[in-house]
Amino acid sequence: MSDLSELYQQVILEHNKTPRNFKKLELFTHDADGYNPLCGDHYHVWLKLDGETITDIGFQGSGCAISKSSASMMTASVKGHTVKEAKELFEKFHSVIMTKIGDALPEETIEELGSLGALAGVREFPARIKCASLAWHALNAALSNSQTTISTESEKN
Asked: Which listed residue, of 3, 35, 78, 84, carries a Cα 20 to 30 Å from 53's Cα?
C-alpha cells in the first residue's frame, strides 16, 4: 500500500472515530434528511446561514465508516464558506467520486479538495459511492431548502 493510500485511510478512520460537527443544531435555518435504503445509512444535516454564509453546520445519524467520515469532512470543509462555495465544492467532490475507473482524475481538482481527496478511492468500489455521497446530497438539499428526504435510490447519485 502506498504512503498516500495509508494516509488517506488514516484520515477516513480518524473522521469516523471522531466526527467533526456531529451534533444537532438547535438554531438552524435549513435542514435535510439523507437516506440510503440499500445499506441503511441515514443522516440529517442542519445549517445555520447568516445571509449567504454557513456559520454553523451539524449532522447526526448512523452509517458506515465511509458515510460518517464523508459527512464529517464535508461539514468541516463548508463551515464558514458561502452557499455558492459549498455548492461548487459539492460539484467538485461529486465529479471526482463519479469518475469511472480507468478515467484520469483531474489532479488540480484532487488538490482543491484537500483532505476530501481521501475519499476519491471510493470510486473503485461502486457500491460505496452512495455511502460517500449521501451526506453531500443532503447538504445540497438543505442549501436548496427543498424540505425533502434525499434517497440514494431516487436521485441520480
From this structure: 35
CA distance 21 to 10: 19
- pLDDT per residue as tens digits for the range 8-22: 689 999 999 999 999
Cut 0.85: pTM above it? yes
DSSP letter at 82 equals B
Q: Is residue 157 part of a domain?
A: no
Domains of the chain: total: 1
Q: Residue 49 is part of a domain; what is its CATH number?
A: 3.90.1010.10
> Which structural domain range is residue 109 located in?
3-151
What gap in Å lies between CA 149 and CA 157, rounded to an integer?
14
